[in-house]
Amino acid sequence: MLLRQLQAVEVRPTTTAHLAQTMALLELSVLELHEKIEAELSSNPALELIEGPFCPICQKPLIDTLDCPLCSRPKNLSGDEPIVFLSPRDDSYPSYAAWSEEEEPESSLEERMVECEDLAVYVFRQIASELEEADRPIAAHLLTSLDEDGLLRTPLIEIAAYHRVPLNRVEKVQRIIQYADPLGVASSDPRQALLIQLDVLAQTHPIPPLAQRAIEEGWQLLLHQQYSTLAKLLNTSLAKVKEIAEFLGKNLNPYPARANWGDLHHPTPSYRAAYYTPDVIISLLNNDENAPLVVEVIFPICGKLRVNPLFREGLRQAPPQKLEQWQAHLERATLLVKCLQQRNQALIRLIQTLVKRQRKFILEGDAYLYPLTRASLAQELEVHESTISRAVSGKTVQLPNGKIIPLAKFFDRSLHIRAELQEIIASESHPLTDTEIAELLRARGFQVARRTVAKYRAMEGILPAHIRSKVKKPHKSAASTP
DNA sequence: CTATGGCACGGATT
DNA sequence: AATCCGTGCCATAG
Fold this sequence. Notes:
Layout: H1 2-10, H2 14-26, H3 30-43, E1 47-50, E2 83-88, H4 96-100, H5 105-117, H6 119-127, H7 136-144, H8 156-163, H9 167-178, H10 190-204, H11 211-223, H12 227-234, H13 238-251, H14 269-273, E3 280-284, E4 293-299, E5 304-307, H15 309-314, H16 320-357, H17 359-364, H18 374-381, H19 385-392, E6 396-398, E7 404-406, H20 415-426, H21 434-443, H22 450-459, H23 465-468
Parallel strand pairs: 2-4, 3-6
Antiparallel strand pairs: 1-5, 3-4, 6-7
Helix pairs in contact: 2-16, 6-7, 7-9, 8-9, 10-11, 11-12, 12-13, 18-19, 20-22, 21-22
The structure holds a DNA duplex.
């Protein structure tokens, strides 16, 4: 009885505080959560991080589970039941997605890690043949100076001075690198990276006419989303500018080190970072079409977070003047641990059903996205809509194909129709007008108004029919530099 | 006259 | 309550 009371006291912040903090934690992305936990760990002695148990088979660390969800999975795997689990994010343990491609994890783990981690090596291999012998040290210098975004923050002049070569020679090397795989890598700033990507993209796709100027002349405005001012500068309408911003956000990536860039609507830098550190990684077991999906919900730290039992002990002998503070620490720590568990649990549950529902979309692309609303999912999971909203906003998912997309895309209402529209345009023999497209779509079961077709077109960056007729579509990607 | 883009309204979603 | 999205109507460009 007494014990029970004590426990009750210990958890005193009551359900409202729990709920509030769980909610708050729920909307944090991995990176933000990482910061939060780090901060808490260093300021609160009651909280401790212990090395978690490891899976005896694959050696991966485990969080909050006794058995490794992969090694101890049931043998008769039905394809539609995804394997969802919490996965630690620790640089010394590559995620499952990277891990699973490996035939013999033991022997080549190191190589694998080098490949995964080292962008510089990856890029260097691509361009090595294009470089003159003498330029290699310069390239190496540039590549090793990249920051984590894949950008080059060191002034070119410095590098030129170091190697005692003219500036334009360094620029030449930079240019070669920029057109290598993470397109725009080694640019001096996001703006430059975008321009390179736009340039390459323009060779294969129609792009909004003013996009380039918007980046060149209105970069600052674009960044700060001062769209109306930008519209004036470019002498166009507000909606046009918004379209451009959306197009850029969707197709380009100012930080070449990672796949996709979501949208411009979240201005904080830490948020953008989320676009190359996904919150969830989905991969396909053995690349087998019928196998279950492996879903890792990334947890920002490795090991088990708990309330330090020694601290709890020590509380009894606390000097009176410290007692209150220590108690506060303890309370804070227990609350955090509890809330974290709740958060993770909620997130896993959400992702689980989401992945199950959208399996086809994940594997086969945009056309198979089932239009799902947050509200309906909330009903199914019996949680409040706002819970879903919070959990979804600001999070990103890495798909089996390596693309990183915002989790919100799983709730896009018209993506499948737009995919159909792209398909129609791609296979048209003669440029179709919006009205004709609307009819075609209707024939395929999507009833949309002509005006809506125009909007979708704009969203996909497809030019109107009369312009399309003039520009021959260069289909498939042409080799960039032979 | 036709095809599209702008703007604004109303209903759904968050 | 605020925002997003599909649509209708009208202006404009070709």
